[in-house]
């Protein structure tokens, strides 16, 4: 049985208090963990029948794709569920020093390898979700309502706060009757298909503003058997797509003796799913590693393709009036280009925000939570959209300051190929353990200049900081 995760310092729950979470994905599960400290009962409502073992499910269509638990996400899950990382590793996840045990190609430049102390975890989404779900299910007062659809929140005529949710079983014989489930707090963690803006409008509340940044990314994942000779014994390799070379990909050690190989492309570049086509696509990446795995490793399943059109952020923090007792979290709040692997980490960070505010008291909770959650997603949103907006096809207007920053970061990526300290800072920012401003710190600017001089000297004066990104 997993260790108890209930915080000893949590405030005692109110008598017969009940919170409802819509969705049993990572955002819903981590939110339920936070709610378990402050509410006597927590009900997690999920449309799917939840598998008893780690397995993909319909409600998580990206579950078969490559996933990585970023450094910040690993630390957040350990904070929410003490001992979780040991449990995850024992179940087959592969921990790795992000810079010392993996290769990174940034704009076609290979980042200089060195031990970094930044440990991420290669694990399939079904495994991570299965272990988190078991932890949540073991909490006192938590129950799961599977195969159930949420039709909307219950809001009295005064429109001030929710008093419950309307639900309907999906698999009952005949016409299933609608039911009302009373609740003191409702948290929508239903993902990118969230109907929360529509529900707010129905209740007479303002809808949030929405920002979308075109990503137009298509990605294909296939799993292979991992053997000791692959990647020279390293844990993984990643290739960053960039303007002029919109192809990217990664090979990651996951779930024991498996590799997850993902190929992705943006703005018209679409990886194929047939073996010969995937190999030809990988052979045009800036390093040979992914192609070698595709050429020599034993495939374990069929390729799976996904398309992601745009990053989407709903600005609930800007509303001048909130519906009491109603929160939104995870992809329902903000979703990112999946190529950056930020979703699970962002969800866990928002759960930590929720837990902190609930420990302080539930008064004015929506306003407080949405403002703090917005700050929590600022960094992953900046990183993901900043990468997408480098492409002129994103069709977003950028000012002189943006172009100046792009030029600096292009040179930064090149200099990281000769300066391991620059590589560590870049990866620490990408894994959300250091703020993006660290990339522009005076000491880092000086190192970039020195790195570029070293590159020019090595290239006989021809280096300009641009990788060609192709082979």
Automatic annotation (TrEMBL):
Domain FAD-binding stretches: 19-360
Keywords carried by this UniProt record: Monooxygenase, Oxidoreductase
GO MF entry, a single one: monooxygenase activity
Keyword hit for Transcription: no
Top-level taxon in the UniProt lineage: Bacteria
Official protein name in the record: FAD-dependent monooxygenase
Lineage of source species: Bacteria, Bacillati, Actinomycetota, Actinomycetes, Kitasatosporales
